[in-house]
Amino acid sequence: MGKSVNPDLAKARSQATFDPANLTNYLYGGPEKLRRKRYLPAFVFKELCTEMSLTDLCLIFLGLLTHVSDYLGLTLSIENMAAKEYKEEGFKSTDDMSREEAYEESMRRAVYTNKRVLQLNLQDQEEQYYFREIFVPGANPFALHYVMFKDAINTQGTEDQIQKWLPLAETYAVTGTYAQTELGHGTFLRGLETTAEYDVQREEFILNTPTITSSKFWPGALGKTANVAILNAKLITKGRNCGMQSFWVPLRHLETHQPLPGITVGDIGPKFGYHTSDNGFLQLNRVRIPRENMLMRYSKVLQDGTFVPPENDRLVYVPMTQFRFVVIGRSGWTLAKAVTVATRYSAVRRQSEITPGGGEVQILDFQTQQHKLFTQIASAYAMIIAAKAAKDLYDSAFSKMEKGNLEDLPMLHALTSSMKAFNTWEMATGVEQCRMACGGHGYLLASGIPQMYTDMVSACTYEGENTVMCLQAARFLNKCQEAANKGERLPQLTRFLQTSRLNISSSLDQDVDLNDIIAAYEFRAATVISEANARLNAGLAMGKSQSEAWNYASQLLVKAALAFSHWFTVRALIENMRGAGFDNSTETLLLQLAKLYALDGMLRYSGDFRKVG
Ligand SMILES: CCCCCCCCCCC/C=C/C(=O)SCCNC(=O)CCNC(=O)[C@H](O)C(C)(C)COP(=O)(O)OP(=O)(O)OC[C@H]1O[C@@H](n2cnc3c(N)ncnc32)[C@H](O)[C@@H]1OP(=O)(O)O
Ligand SMILES: Cc1cc2nc3c(=O)[nH]c(=O)nc-3n(C[C@H](O)[C@H](O)[C@H](O)COP(=O)(O)OP(=O)(O)OC[C@H]3O[C@@H](n4cnc5c(N)ncnc54)[C@H](O)[C@@H]3O)c2cc1C
Asked: Where is the active site (predicted)?
């Protein structure tokens, strides 16, 4: 029996001028991917939530075979076992639980999904993410294991190390974390104090956190879940500091889960959000690990203690760059979820009258409510589509890097840094706007929006604090501006610094041309980047050192990075909407949405746009 849909919602949906399936397929990468995304949770929920005979299961199983047999390696006995085991315990909301209980409930669900992902033989990363998100809606205690721990092995480990360690991670023989941040340092990596001193006699590293500020602090899963860490420490060999390197460090006994000798580990306590993630602290008291435990894809320590430096000392940063791409993409989807909740609510919530005596209207009829929500719908599309465009750039650059060509690494770092800051700040303000658009009910945990905010707003801090990330991107942009000032050749992504001109044909009283919109954002970015460069040079002309002049110009440098990201986003949105092969009605609507996004941005940053004419 179909669910009854609220008549106001049904009416609103019936007025669509386009076929939503076109958009859904586009957003999820096509009908087959969408079908898989929908089939998996539906299958599992059906299996879990209704008493089923083996016959039912076989029918469903056969039904699956016609759709998704290419990846479901189901074995009925295991499915039955998982169903019984989980059904008996069932789902419990964590909203009313203590932090301990909420962590345990999330851990129970995460372990269940880990088992199911293996049983279903789900290989596709996105499918794994969708599957997990259904069952562990909040912070997943295994998040670091799924993302940074495995990525670090894959990107920093030698082939032998990958062969040895990755299967352990894939089968959950170990559960991992990525331990870099310390109590005293998160941003300034060159300030990390944890040491890894090479003992040439025993061919071992001695790991030590010599001060309280060197204690590892914040890593997810460190509090209780993880029994191994990829740990970043200052390598010291033959008396020389060789900079930050990554190490495979056992933390807890694989059977008893008790901390190993020399290890003091625990949870850092309650946080603003992310309650079911056990972020922890770690102190190492001269813990020994074999030489083979240093991840040696790029840099090495030979048996005699000789340090072989990497071709590029920034390669150790690759796991962070990779995860920034995850954050860039997830930010758009988080805003998409929040604005979906708020828009549906606005279709069914009747409050106040527009015409006195005309009866209470759907709040979606208020222009102010439309402005609050439609701009966020546009922003969610813009961020999701720009993330896809950035990922395409990343994939092509990364494949070159894997062949040893590192020329795109600076561009990649700048793009991921600026887009991670831009998307997470836009997502944070957008989700909060959606919450407030729902009035009192938006403040209920049951609305789902508060947790989206408190969990995801941490993305403005982790993986590189946003201001710092903007300044990182500004290093690259400023270098490009200096090169442009000298007439030198620029990377493809920043050639607009030399070519952008303001030749807008549109006037405000006509329907604005999309190419003019891209040109306006390009010109605004070029102008802000040039202004930041001028301020830096003015600081130098005043006799300041390079670093003092950098600090003197840093507010404008942050603005330059954000203007660059805004341009990249508007261009990606318009170019992808035009080129996506939609039918006319859908394309017309999406281009209207793109205009709304771009014009709203011009209003929000009207100072920049007025200044550049
Ligand atoms: C939303 C997702 C949902 C899914 C699941 C959620 C689960 C999430 C749980 C949270 C996980 C969080 C994990 C973490 O937070 S891990 C720790 C992250 N920490 C950081 O990001 C530290 C940030 N700081 C830095 O990266 C560096 O300190 C900084 C870059 C700021 C400074 O570097 P440095 O001290 O070396 O100094 P410079 O600025 O001079 O840089 C030197 C040159 O190196 C270049 N560089 C720096 N970083 C990179 C990089 N990543 N890739 C490439 N190149 C890099 C830099 O540009 C300089 O080069 P130039 O001199 O040529 O400019
Ligand atoms: C929920 C959550 C999960 C996390 N998970 C992990 C994890 O799994 N593993 C891990 O290793 N770490 C993790 N972290 C730590 C995270 O990476 C750091 O918090 C982050 O890198 C910021 O560093 P910090 O906390 O030292 O902030 P700080 O750098 O001290 O920032 C404080 C202020 O100083 C400013 N500032 C700092 N440097 C500069 C500069 N050069 N120029 C201008 N301004 C500057 C910043 O802009 C900011 O306003 C997590 C953090 C959170 C919140």
From this structure: 463 (proton acceptor)
Length of the chain (residues): 613
- What is the CA(304)–ligand 1 centre distance, in A? 31
175-310, CATH topology level? Butyryl-CoA Dehydrogenase, subunit A; domain 2 (2.40.110)
What are the tokens at 316? 């150790």
| Amino acid identity at 545 | S
Residue 254 burial (CB count, 10 A): 13
Are the CB atoms for 477 and 560 separated by under 8 Å?
A: yes
User: Is the Cβ atom of 138 under 6 angstroms away from ligand 1?
Assistant: no
Phi then psi for residue 361, to 5 deg, are: -100, 165
Q: How far is the CA of 213 from the centre of ligand 2 (A)?
A: 14
Question: Which helix or strand (DSSP H or E) is residue 301 part of?
Answer: strand 300-301
Catalytic choice (204, 463, 522, 531) = 463
Structure token pair of residue 258: 């008790």
CA 558 to chain centroid: 20
CB atoms within 10 A of CB 414: 26
Which positions of the chain have pLDDT values less than 50? 1, 50-83
Tell me whether 0.95 is exceeded by the ipTM. yes
CA angle, corner 128, sides to 124 and 129, nearest 5?
A: 120
- Which residue(s) pair with 307 in the sheet? 301
DSSP-derived letter for residue 145 is: I
Label residues 71-99 b or e (16+ Cβ within 10 Å = b): ebebeeeebeebbeebeeeeeeebeebee
Query: Any idea where the domains of the chain sit in the sequence?
Result: 19-138, 175-310, 319-491+512-611
DSSP 208-247: E--SGGGSEE--TTTTTT-SEEEEEEEEEETTEEEEEEEE
DSSP E strands, 263-388: 263-267, 280-284, 287-290, 300-301, 307-308
Contacts of 572 (CB under 8 A, 6+ apart): 382, 385, 386, 388, 389, 390
Q: CB under 8 Å, gap of 24 or more: what pairs does 548-551 form?
A: none
Residues contacting 468, CB < 8 A, separation 6+: 187
Counting Cα atoms < 13 Å in the Cβ hemisphere of 604 gives 15
CA angle at residue 62 from 60 to 67, to 5 degrees?
A: 90
* CB distance 563 to ligand 1 below 6 Å: no
pLDDT digits (tens, 9 = 90+) for 173-204: 999 999 999 999 999 999 999 999 999 999 99
* pLDDT tens-place string over residues 136-173: 878 999 999 998 999 999 999 999 999 999 999 999 99
581 is in an annotated binding site: no
Residues paired with 265 in a beta bridge: 282
Look at strands 204-208 and 287-290 and give their pairing.
antiparallel
CATH 1.20.140.10 fits 319-491+512-611, yes or no: yes
> pLDDT tens digits, residue range 466-496?
999 999 999 999 999 999 999 999 999 999 9
Instruction: Write phi, then psi, for 210 (nearest 5 degrees).
Output: -70, -20
- Amino acid residing at 585: S
Structure token pair of residue 136: 């562990």
CB of 265 closer than 8 Å to CB of 251:
yes
Asked if 184 and 173 touch (Cβ cutoff 8 Å), the reply is: no
CB 319, CB 148: distance < 8 Å: yes
| 522 catalytically annotated | no
Q: Does ligand 1 come within 6 angstroms of the Cβ of 316? A: no
Helix/strand number for the chain, H first, E second: 21, 11
